């Protein structure tokens, strides 16, 4: 059961106790500063928050959010609350919670938070159930775990749910599979597929934060090393770009011919993992698939190869097999574990194979999450207004919302762009005029 955290010392939450399960409410002051600092570079979300405070588009809506509990997420949650939502928040990854941020959300904003950094798998799912105990009408997922639990274990709650949103590629893949099989019970907006999300968050956010996580965990030099990026989707593109910028010799592995060709054209060496595993000093998986690095790769790696993951789930590295192959294990420093194989070679795994940018670092910079979470806020508002018109399937973020977020971001950056003239609009919409 969740703990009842007493907030009677803080008048701004009306002296009411809040159901929560966090590490330490006394960390709230530190978290308060982090939340404010992140909010300073989230101008789009701040504008949405100001409008939400006036219009209350989410008034009385119960919302269960399963997201990385970071300072950026806190700013989203605060905006949703300003809009009138009753938010319950749990973590979408056992290692991604910032405990001080969780404390501030509970103490300063009376949000029911169920998240502790380093929680075990049982606690992780118990926290999801705690969030669902609020009988949500909206779900907000990063990986579709809330949707999965609702459809498999808490089906009695589905009658309350009017819609949801999904933050990441992995979750969207799961949800589209559910919709294709006809088992999805409510409409969901794929926030990940918005241009202002995946073109920026996935590429620039993942690229920078993953490198940040690897360097914080290891304090190793990337320049002059061979850095293997598994997967060249938008996250892989960003990671490869940043690793090359740090001076690494970047190798890309891929399964899609067109994407592999693009990586070649971008100037990277492309080869199968069976070849790349022999030469890599650093490895990072960003595919969203299982067993990308597995036994035959471990056995061929260099002594001391460093292996990490920045895909949503900890399934891309076959850790179960690595555990069986190892004759010895040792934690060398926080988030750095060494596995010694029977042939004497040592494989280093970072962050338990979980999202390294959140396990050992702080996730994406706030300025890029500004657009992602603006999409989440506006998609939630859209779902409340339009859910009766929607079928039980996965929808794209409406184009006009995507464009509005881009316009607001440009305005905040002081960037101006051209507008089409009436003649140009007419020309683009006609077929009569040729060369």
TrEMBL record:
It is found in: Cytoplasm. Its EC number is 3.13.2.1. Pathway: Amino-acid biosynthesis; L-homocysteine biosynthesis; L-homocysteine from S-adenosyl-L-homocysteine: step 1/1. This is Adenosylhomocysteinase. May play a key role in the regulation of the intracellular concentration of adenosylhomocysteine. Its cofactor is NAD(+). NAD(+) binds at residues 168-170, 202, 231-238, 254, 289, 310-312, 357, 364. It comes from Archangium gephyra. SUPFAM superfamilies: Formate/glycerate dehydrogenase catalytic domain-like, NAD(P)-binding Rossmann-fold domains. It catalyses: S-adenosyl-L-homocysteine + H2O = L-homocysteine + adenosine. GO terms for biological process: L-homocysteine biosynthetic process; one-carbon metabolic process; S-adenosylmethionine cycle.
């Amino acid at each position: 059961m969740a703990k009842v955290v007493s907030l009677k010392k803080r008048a701004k939450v009306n002296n009411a106790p809040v159901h929560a399960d966090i590490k330490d409410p006394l960390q709230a002051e530190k978290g308060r500063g982090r939340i404010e600092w992140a909010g300073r570079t989230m101008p789009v979300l701040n504008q949405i928050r100001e409008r939400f405070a006036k219009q209350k588009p989410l008034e009385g809506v119960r919302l269960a959010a399963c997201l990385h509990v970071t300072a950026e997420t806190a700013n989203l949650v605060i905006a949703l609350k300003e809009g009138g939502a009753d938010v319950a928040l749990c973590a979408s990854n056992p290692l991604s919670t910032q405990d001080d941020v969780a404390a501030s959300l509970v103490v300063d904003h009376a949000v029911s938070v169920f998240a502790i950094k380093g929680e075990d798998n049982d606690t992780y799912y118990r926290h999801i159930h705690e969030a669902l105990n609020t009988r949500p009408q909206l779900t907000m997922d990063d990986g579709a775990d809330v949707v999965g639990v609702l459809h498999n274990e808490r089906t009695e709650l589905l009658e309350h749910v009017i819609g949801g949103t999904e933050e990441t590629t992995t979750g969207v893949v799961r949800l589209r599979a559910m919709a294709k099989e006809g088992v999805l019970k409510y409409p969901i907006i794929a926030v990940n597929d918005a241009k202002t999300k995946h073109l920026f968050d996935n590429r620039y956010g993942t690229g920078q934060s993953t490198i940040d996580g690897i360097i914080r965990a290891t304090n190793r030099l990337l320049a002059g090393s061979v850095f293997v990026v598994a997967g060249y989707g938008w996250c892989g593109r960003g990671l490869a770009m940043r690793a090359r910028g740090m001076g690494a010799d970047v190798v890309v592995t891929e399964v899609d011919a067109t994407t592999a060709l693009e990586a070649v054209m971008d100037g990277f060496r492309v080869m199968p993992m069976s070849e790349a595993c022999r030469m890599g000093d650093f490895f990072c998986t960003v595919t969203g698939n299982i067993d990308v690095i597995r036994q035959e790769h471990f056995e061929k790696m260099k002594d001391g190869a460093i292996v990490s993951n920045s895909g949503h789930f900890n399934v891309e590295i076959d850790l179960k097999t690595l555990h069986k192959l190892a004759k010895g294990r040792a934690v060398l420093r926080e988030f750095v574990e060494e596995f010694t194989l029977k042939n004497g070679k040592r494989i280093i795994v970072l962050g338990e194979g979980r999202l390294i940018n959140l396990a050992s670092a702080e996730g994406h910079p706030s300025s890029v999450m500004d657009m992602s979470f603006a999409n989440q806020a506006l998609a939630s508002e859209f779902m409340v207004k339009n859910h009766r018109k929607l079928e039980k399937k996965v929808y794209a973020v409406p184009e006009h919302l995507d464009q509005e977020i881009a316009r607001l971001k440009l305005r905040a950056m002081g960037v101006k762009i051209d507008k089409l003239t009436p003649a140009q609009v007419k020309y683009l919409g006609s077929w009569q005029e040729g060369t």
